[in-house]
Specification:
heterodimer, A: alpha/beta, six-stranded mixed beta sheet, four-stranded antiparallel beta sheet, 10 helices, 25% strand, globular, B: alpha/beta, 26% helix
Chain lengths: 260, 287
């Protein structure tokens, strides 16, 4: 991991989003340091996906600040112009959707999918783009001979891995993941988690992972935030929160996990 | 209704004003698709309703009109549109590129270089170059606004990945004056270099999609490509069998049941001009 641990990469203050009179998420505050993985857990409807969308700029929050450490110093991404935010979204940020169909272009070959972000930031050398695509397919354990196949010919697990390759190819610093292992069977989940853990450590990525699966955060996350009804009810180191839950809801959540 | 019941060039003056405003805006912002209130025209969509409206808005009684379809003056689309303006505007018509002041075209740019003062009007079926990659209109407009054209190269990437070369042979995307990516209407990519730096004003009308855009004279138009797969303006590797021209765009014509074929200039005026000047191709004497 890198050295500038004193400055947070992402600093969120008082973030709130309301759907009319209903609360999406309210008064969320946290700091995310470089190389750190933050897990957000909670039941369906607890506001974790709303929070992630607000952070990634897909939704406009009603209140609060999201300060990102850009190459040119800290900037509030909510007051940025749209071109700046979209540039950020395809360079320093990445977003992994739960359903790979939302994050991939299904009519474009695997190589084209991986190359799209490269071409979006100005790569104009076909051979170079292709080499990089082959390299990244290898890193997510997809055979190089599948490079010209469309994602629709891939299994669910391969699609998810392709989506990850497509997102990480430009070397982002912050990855948002919305239930990256949802909808996959357990053995595929385990391989994907292994892969993600390796990539996060190797690239020194910071990541925010939204999930309802406590095993996923146990494996990947350094720190954990527990949400209920739009509020953060508990946060702390992952092991601490999971092994010694303080809030009643966290205790319920931890004890709900089936022990095999 | 008598023919005198029509306004000059079919459209009423208010409609022409509206279209001219769209054209002026298009000329001011080369390559930008200007929305306009496209009218119903007495022909089906896909037959050049956009081009006809642009031509109607440009015509003045002194104009000389030429209409071509795939380069030819004598095909159905060209003949019917020429007749349409002959009846509704009473302007002079011609088949000679050099004599025309307004040329409406479907899918070709004439071989004879255009000159200052001429207007070339294109019929455009789908004006949005990003359409088949990004179906949302709101999103494509945003991409134009923010100059996010990476996706256009994804299309070319797919071409090379699948065919080993850029197989897009018509409708080849171009960048106008370093800003807007534009769909040049389905002209063959052989014609793309003629878009750039042309002395004539080039106007594009899409009737069904309700868009007008323009390339003013002497505007830089660059065909998109990759560094290691540069743009090539391709044509059939033959000479014209009628006039012997080696540098013109050719149509392939099957002439018998034994697989016999001939290649002829798609620009009929250019071919006829050369033959009149005494050039003879491989089969030129026999036909």
């Amino acid at each position: 991991m890198n050295g500038s641990l004193d400055l947070p990469l992402l600093s969120v203050r008082g973030l709130s989003k309301f759907y009319g009179s209903r609360i999406g998420c309210a008064d969320v505050c946290f700091d995310l340091y470089p190389g750190e993985v933050l897990g957000i857990v909670g039941e369906s409807g607890s506001g974790k996906s709303t929070l992630l969308s607000c952070l990634a700029g897909h939704l406009t929050p009603d209140r609060g600040e999201v300060i990102f450490q850009t190459a040119l110093g800290p900037r509030d991404t909510l007051t940025m112009t749209e071109p700046e935010r979209r540039r950020l979204a395809r360079t320093d940020w990445a977003f992994v959707h739960q359903n790979p169909r939302d994050g991939l272009r299904m009519g474009v070959s695997a190589g084209g999918n991986v190359g799209e972000r490269l071409m979006a930031v100005g790569a104009r050398h076909y051979g170079g783009i292709r080499d990089k695509a082959v390299d990244w397919l290898g890193r997510v354990e997809i055979n190089a001979d599948r490079i010209d196949d469309r994602p629709s010919a891939f299994s669910g697990g391969m699609q998810q891995r392709l989506q990850i390759a497509r997102n990480l190819v430009t070397g982002p610093r912050l990855v948002f993941m919305d239930e990256p292992t949802g909808g996959l069977d357990v053995s595929v989940q385990a391989r994907l988690l292994d892969l993600l853990r390796g990539l996060v450590r190797e690239m020194g990525l910071s990541a925010i992972i939204v999930t309802h699966d406590l095993a996923v955060v146990r494996l990947l996350a350094d720190r954990l935030m527990v949400m209920k009804s739009g509020h953060v009810v508990e946060q702390g180191l992952t092991d601490q929160v999971l092994d010694d839950p303080q809030h009643g809801y966290t205790q319920l959540l931890v004890s709900s996990v089936l022990q095999v | 209704m008598s023919e005198q019941a029509y306004n000059f060039a079919y459209l009423d003056e208010q409609t022409k004003r509206m279209i001219r405003r769209a054209i002026l805006k298009g000329v001011a912002i080369p390559g930008y698709q200007v929305p306009f209130a496209s009218r119903e025209m007495p022909m089906p969509y896909g037959w050049g309703t956009g081009g006809v409206q642009v031509t109607a808005a440009c015509l003045v009684p002194e104009d000389v009109l030429k209409v071509i379809d795939q380069g030819a003056d004598d095909t159905t689309n060209a003949v019917s549109i020429r007749k349409f303006f002959l009846r509704t505007a009473g302007v002079a018509v011609t088949e000679a590129t050099t004599e025309a002041s307004v040329i409406q075209t479907r899918h070709r740019i004439p071989e004879t270089p255009l000159t200052e003062g001429q207007i070339l009007v294109y019929q455009v079926p789908i004006p949005e170059p990003l359409r088949f990659l990004e179906p949302r209109e709101t999103e494509t407009r945003k991409m134009h606004e923010l100059e996010e054209y990476g996706l256009m190269h994804v299309k070319l990437y797919e071409d090379i990945a699948r065919h080993g070369q850029i197989a897009t042979a018509y409708d080849y995307p171009v960048k106008v004056e370093g800003r807007y990516v534009m769909d040049p209407s389905p002209i063959p990519k052989f014609d793309n270099p003629k878009l750039s730096g042309s002395a004539a004003l080039q106007l594009f009308g899409a009737g069904r999609e309700q868009r007008i855009y323009a390339v003013p004279p002497y505007t830089q138009v660059v065909s998109l490509d990759f560094d290691d797969h540069p743009f090539v303006a391709s044509k059939a590797a033959h000479d014209c069998d009628l006039c012997g021209a080696g540098e013109s765009y050719l149509d392939e014509v099957i002439i018998d049941d034994q697989g016999g074929r001939m290649f002829v200039c798609s620009d009929t005026d250019f071919c006829a001009g050369r033959r009149a000047a005494g050039h003879v191709g491989r089969l030129g004497g026999a036909v």
